[in-house]
Amino acid sequence: RWPEIQRKLANAYMNIAIHIEENAGEEKHLSSRLQLFKDAEERYLSAKQIRKDIMPAIEQNADERFQTYRDLGIGYSNLTGLHQKIMDVTAEIANNLPEDSAYDDQYEQRKAEIEEYRKDMVINSNLAIEYLKKALEINRDDAQARYTLATLYLNLAAETQDAEMFANSFNVLKQVVGESSVKLYRDELDRFIEEWQGFIANDDGIERPDDQVARAKELFNQSIADIASAFVVAGEKEPYPELKLGRFERARKLLQDYLDTAVGEEPGNEKARDKLEEVENLIEKIRN
Known about the structure:
It is built from 10 helices and no strands. The protein has helices spanning 3-24, 30-53, 62-95, 104-138, 143-160, 163-177, 186-201, 210-237, 241-259, 270-287. The longest helix is centred in the middle third of the chain and has 35 residues, at 104-138. The radius of gyration is 22 Å and the shape is globular.
């Protein structure tokens, strides 16, 4: 009957989970590290269940609903990151088993655990996306929810090998750019571009069908041009010349870096080249 106290309890479980997870990374013994990660997982799940339990009591309060949706989305996102760590440690334990038939059952059990966590990662990623989208319907300016959502799309794209998911991640970032109340951090966007370029270049060694790679290139080109356009629109809203120039310069760098890559050199990038010319004209106009 006291949702605010339940929310604080959920936050406490979440903070403990984060603390355990951070300390687990310093544990040298793999079995101990794995146990700590699973202890953190238990706390994350406790926080998640409490937040789901209070949903009926806060249905009429938009602020409370937003907070709970966002917390659930971030909680599910944290779970996906934790599950990746559990998978990595489990794989390391399995690979360190002696090459002896007596250990074959243990090896197979570890591999089965990894596959179950991989399935959970996809499920939890989709649940996190669902809750964060609901949160952003209430408060579209929340930067943490926006970045978490974009990162989830990016991670899910890498896991499922889905080029459309990469486009979703860029569309979320584009919305951030277009909102003057939210700052798009340079390293965040650069990381997304690097990840997508790796996806297209098959840097991860996964063979992808030609039509999927072609679609990824098309989406990448479109997304770069769209984000550059969002920077231009945001720049035009800025009241001071130096702020306008900063936004336009960011658009120019984004486009120029893209056109300097192997993907940018390919035919069909006229839109990006035209947008670069437009941005350069805007920059020259301000400087003059």
